[in-house]
Description:
This protein has helices spanning 13-17, 36-64, 67-91, 95-110, 119-122, 132-138, 157-168, 178-194, 207-223; strands at 146-149, 153-156. It is built from 9 helices and 2 strands, in the order ααααααββααα. The chain is globular and about 50 Å long. By secondary structure, the chain is mainly α. It has a domain at 13-21 and 30-69 and 129-238. Keywords: Lipoprotein, Signal. InterPro entries: MlaA.
Amino acid sequence: MTRWSGRGALVMTLALLAGCASSGEMREPNPDDPWEGFNRKVFAFNDVVDRYALKPAAQGYRFITPDPVETSVGNFFSNLGEIRTTLNSLLQGKGTNAGVATGRFLINTTVGIGGLFDVATRMDITGREEDFGQTLGAWGVGEGGYLVLPLLGPSTVRDTAGLPADMYTYPTTYIEEDKVRVGLTALRVIDARAGLLDQEALISGDRYSFIRDAYLQQRRFEVNDGQLGEDPFASDEFDFDDEDFDDAFAE
């Protein structure tokens, strides 16, 4: 699917970057961020978790994992996300995009050997990723205030309400074996974090504000299907690979 490293993750790209930034200084109140004091505290907590756990794990993963294998891991998790896109596209009345997502899943699952290879994109079969937060937006639900969730990172009231539905439409949720389910989830998170290591240098100024504004702008772009203008992250600088997770922390 056409993605800015997925969203997702988002719920994972910027979500993970929340753990890479310092709390910064308080600035003028932002109407989009009514709980900024609380959010900055959670932001600082996420920073500690990332600094001492997630980032070192991601660096080790990148060091020992060959690039083709890392790409295949990202493709695998991204392919599972096509099911979520199909369902949410149908809920939004986007039959064409639902068909594209279904086609991508079938092609990549079969010809792409379980989704390890993104054959569909090479065939120029691409569409828009959709999640339940976007579906709520399409149904007219307001985004609400900006939220930083513990461990999950940037969100809004609307996107947070959509997380349970996103979790239950992701296939790994239904794996009965706890060790397998937890192991795949951990791999998904670490792989997504590894995909963001090179992007941390792009954050400038007050990192909290930078990530907040970038997240909100991107989500509004996605909810409105690009009607707000050009994708603010469509440049080469923000052209992350498929293995980045764009919804990463939707579970």
